[in-house]
């Protein structure tokens, strides 16, 4: 995109969003549905990715998410997103989710952390280059190093599954099934 710099500090596009959970967001157990939290995570990460890349960006993947504590109706949930890592056209966005109990004053609890990969796309939906993220603090450098570890694990998992499918196809002499993600 014209006018987009070749690099941006992490802090330039960090985003915080707070949401008060409502009755219509609960699951059958009466706590907030995980999908509600995941939707907000994707929205926050999408804004961060679009701002960092200076244009549209699509969700390519979301790593597994572990919910550490339940979120209850009325709780104030905080989402803090930032770009952890950049490649050529992809970015890892991390979102930390914390909550304040609606009926008591106390420390915020850590609900979950999520890691998403966004790919910046052009008008035809094709990947385009993104500015490199520049971490400025110790914490931002730690996140960048850990994002590189997650990236190498994603690539290794993909390569191992393709190799396994090739091997299985060779045994029965058929074409290997294409690998398009964990659920296929
Ligand atoms: C994401 C998408 C643009 C990638 O297109 P592609 O032609 O496969 O792109 P490439 O293979 O050239 O990869 C481009 C980049 O994306 C990364 N990437 C692609 N698929 C990925 C995945 N599943 N997980 C993590 N990274 C991925 C590649 O590593 C590469 O990163 P780099 O440029 O930083 O090195 C394409 O698959 C797409 O449009 N998917 C649908 C996205 C969408 O609509 N999301 C909303 C869901 S409703």
From TrEMBL:
GO cellular component, one term: cytosol
InterPro entries listed in its UniProt record: Cytosol_ACT (IPR040170), HOTDOG_ACOT (IPR033120), HotDog_dom_sf (IPR029069), Thioestr_dom (IPR006683)
Keyword check for Hydrolase: yes
Keyword Nucleus: no
GO biological process: acyl-CoA metabolic process
Originating organism: Kribbella antiqua
Domain HotDog ACOT-type: 11-124
Protein name: Acyl-CoA hydrolase
One Pfam family of this chain: 4HBT
Family: Belongs to the acyl coenzyme A hydrolase family.
């Amino acid at each position: 995109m014209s006018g987009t710099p070749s690099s941006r500090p992490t802090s330039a596009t960090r985003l915080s969003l707070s949401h008060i959970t409502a009755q219509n967001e609960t699951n059958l157990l009466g706590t907030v549905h995980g999908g509600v939290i995941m939707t907000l995570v994707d929205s926050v990460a999408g804004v961060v990715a679009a701002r960092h890349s200076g244009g549209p960006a699509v969700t390519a993947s979301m790593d597994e998410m572990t919910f550490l504590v339940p979120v209850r109706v009325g709780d104030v949930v905080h989402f803090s997103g930032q770009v952890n890592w950049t490649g050529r056209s992809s970015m890892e966005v991390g979102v930390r989710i914390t909550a304040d109990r609606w009926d008591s004053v106390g420390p915020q609890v850590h609900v979950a952390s999520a890691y998403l990969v966004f790919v910046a796309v052009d008008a035809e939906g094709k990947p385009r280059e993104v500015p490199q993220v520049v971490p400025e603090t110790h914490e931002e450098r730690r996140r960048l190093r850990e994002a590189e570890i997650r990236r190498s694990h994603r690539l290794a998992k993909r390569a191992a599954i393709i190799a396994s499918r090739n091997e299985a196809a060779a045994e029965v002499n058929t074409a290997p099934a294409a690998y398009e993600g964990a659920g296929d």
